[in-house]
Write a structure and sequence with these properties.
The complex is a heterodimer. Chain A is α/β, with parallel strands linked by helices. Chain A has helices at 51-58, 86-95, 104-107, 114-125, 130-143, 149-153, 162-174, 192-209, 220-226, 244-249, 254-262, 330-337, 360-367, 387-397, 402-415, 432-445, 462-479, 490-496, 514-519, 524-532, and strands at 7-17, 26-36, 40-44, 68-76, 79-80, 97-100, 180-184, 212-217, 229-234, 237-243, 279-290, 304-315, 319-323, 345-350, 353-354, 370-373, 450-454, 482-487, 499-504, 507-513. The chains are: A alpha/beta, B mainly alpha. Chain B: The chain crosses the membrane at residues 28-46, 92-118, 139-167, 211-234, 255-277.
Amino acid sequence: MTGERKTILDIRDLQISLPAGGDRPHALWDFNLTVGEGEIVCLVGESGSGKSLAASAAMRLLPEPHVHVSKGSISLDGTDLLSLSERQMRDVRGDRIAMIFQEPMTALNPQKTVGWQIDEVLRLHTRLNKAERKARAIEILTDVHIPDPASAYNAYPHQISGGQRQRVMIAMALVLKPRLIIADEPTTALDVTTQKQILKLIKELQQLHGTGILFITHDFGVVAEIADRIAVLSLGELVEQGPADQILNNPQHPYTRKLIAAVPALTPPPEKAMSKEPVVLEAKALRKTFAARGGFLSGKRNPVIAVKDLTFELRRGETLGVVGESGSGKTTVSRIVTRLLEADSGEVSIDGRDIISASKAELRALRKDIQMVFQDPMASLNPRRRVVELIAQGPIIQGVPRETAYARARELLSLVELPAAAANRYPHEFSGGQRQRIGIARALAMEPRVIVADEPVSALDVSVQAQVLRLLADLRDRLHLSLLFVTHDLRVAAQLCDKVIVMSKGEIVEAGPTARVFADPQHPYTRSLLDSIPGRGWEPPVLSVA
Amino acid sequence: MSIPDTILTPPAPPRSLVLWRRFRRNRAAVLGLALFIIVVLMAALADVVTPGDPLRLAGTPLTAPLSVAENPWGTDQLGRDIMSGIFHGARISLAIGVVATIISIAIGIVIGAVAGYFGGRVDGALMRVTEAFQTIPSFVLLLTLVAIFGSSIENIVIAIGVVSWTAPARMVRAEFMSLRKREFVDAARNLGVSDISIIFREILPNALPPVIVFASVVMATAILMESALAFLGLGDPNYASWGNMIGQGRAVLRTAWFCSVIPGMAILLTVLSFSLMGEGLNDALNPRQKK
């Protein structure tokens, strides 16, 4: 494909069968893919597209016999992997193909030290003696830029940070200098700044060793950052394949065009003149510390400060984004203003009425005005209740007669663009995006003034994400709602928020209109966040989606 | 290619149908269900098949089974018909099993739910009480309660319920501890739902499946406990329970084995039916099952 490059992985006409009764007979259909030496091929697709199964097939790790390769060939440096015995395949795995998983905490054994786990790989695949193996392990830990490799060698996985764990996974994958690395969403669970470092590391090591990388992801930002070549999967079919530049800027297939069009552009909306609107939600000097509970015999641990002196105001019809990395306290903020968590001190008022010191009865009345949309649409809907009950529950508690509330719930379904037939179903019968629409309808049923949305789209595929965001923005404008929008995704924040506050370690480091903050960040932390947005240099082309 | 995310999938089949389909796949469970239906039929038809008081004299004492047409399963040493005792005893055993299970599960749910939902000190206090009950062997506690309050059938049932709530309580507590952190609980609180409603209307339905499975075990042990009490002569002598029959048959075990073996078989098959059904329910209610 790229001239002189030697092909490492060659997948031809691959077809993977799914057990009867699934939503489709084949997970993959006529799948062709090559990975050359020193090449990063990104396999992109939404959930359920079969991208992870393609990786498992190359590792021969499919859950056979239910899911099995029914046709085609997979060869690595000319060796047909499908004809190898299980014993021979074991030597190939780790030695010639290595895999990096999404969640490093679960992929590492929590009972063994980092050093032991790297040592195990070497013990199984090489004839090095103990001292040589240790030297090699420390060398590879140095290569992945872990600070103080000697102490990391003796650390347990829970003692090092998430980013460092992912570095350890990469070290384990690289220690035998494999020909091919399969990386399955390796940065999805990481913060943007860590993600940026890991992506840089993968690229750097790959250039050093000439490894071929099959990189599986759903995030076009990441793709833009590292891909040499891109293959797009949709429902088991390879719809488009080509050099990164061509696919990103001039996609041909309608599905690819749709995916790329759904990537939020990094240009925030123009500043709106909001100062005339009344302030709806106001928070003053909020503070919350989590007391770390020490054990009975162990010493006391230091309490963690989650939110420190937080002050903000939200006007009618305005969207305030709360952005930050994990541990910045942004979720704590969303729980305090809805009083799902008790603050240590401070004030939150809706239209001048204080919610922090409200009694139980007052609080119940106040809840009507401030509603929440949760992150995980699966977990936030009670699986044992019908949709109509879920939506009508709030108004019924507020004293609305059951019939009226049910009728209103059915109206709300059409407002969030769900068919009326959805009313009598249970949450598990819906897709992620549909569930989030139900969550929004539930919040709207209370006719609130403020909606607090905690990462409402981060569990959704990018095309669904775009639809839900559009719905939220549309409802906000039609119903004059104010949104407090908590997110880690700066692209999403750029699309929706009029103002943002950037949080780091419980404190606001920067606040202001989104356009101004994005164009001219003042605080170094904001700058590093903005610099870390994957694919920052790539502006998604404006496409008309048929 | 573009699929708007608002198109619904075809409706799922009703839950009861899905559960039955899964239950049916476990053959042992179907056998258990068949046995259970037989026991229920015996209890229901006792007055039709074997009319009259089962404790009355019905033939020559110690008639062997299959020798006299009036007493097909034989008689005991007081001349009482064994078949009549088994059929009427099915009522007592089932009633004891069901009522004692309801009592123990109800206490277990309330204590476990409150402990698991509120956590902290409430949990600490309730769990210490639970542990106090757990440290005493339940049968010894049962003997003590029956010795103190007397061995009427009501007291026996209540006592069995009171000694067997600890395991369900711990189970419900564990379920609540994991479920209370789910977002749907926060969502309900955010709508202003009260704690009581959250516990019983939001969380409990989600915590029930393992408890229902466990109830079958409790029911089996309740029947066994009653039999053991009766065997020791602490049963209610006014009712023909299976345990009473074994207890009295024990005296003539060497000469007339059938006096103890027939009610023993009845207990064995009934308890077996509960365990098998429990297995099947476990399969049926397991959310990881696809079909």
